[in-house]
Structures are given as structure tokens and as C-alpha cells.
Specification:
- By secondary structure, this protein is α+β, with helices and mostly antiparallel strands.
- Helix content is about 15%, strand content about 15%.
- The chain has a domain of about 35 residues.
């Protein structure tokens, strides 16, 4: 059943349209490995973040 146009408030309309402004996630090239990674995230292959070793890399 359709909702009358005047019943939908500006706030509810804005909530519905807020997802339209979402963009694609940004990626940056890692200085050390040259791989693409998310900014402000740990590089999972090397375990490095801002030049420091954060995670221990599993040996194969």
C-alpha cells in the first residue's frame, strides 16, 4: 500500500537517501611493499603499521 506524500517527513526521506552519498573505499599504495591497502589500516601481509611491526606474520 502506498504512503501519502505528505506523511513522509524530511528526516525520514533524508535517512533513506543518506546511503546515496556513500562512495567506494579509498586505497593507497604501501611505501614498502607497493601493495594496495586501506589508509589507516594494518598491512596484513607484513604486519606493519606506520613503520612499526604490529602483527606477527605467520610463517608458511
Amino acid at each position: 500500500m502506498a504512503v501519502p506524500k505528505k506523511k513522509v517527513t524530511r528526516m525520514k526521506r533524508g535517512f533513506r537517501r543518506s546511503a546515496d552519498a556513500l562512495g567506494q573505499p579509498a586505497y593507497v599504495e604501501d611505501k614498502d611493499s607497493g601493495e594496495l591497502r586501506r589508509p589507516h589500516h594494518v598491512d596484513l601481509k607484513t604486519g606493519m603499521y606506520r613503520g612499526r611491526q604490529i602483527l606477527q606474520v605467520k610463517e608458511d
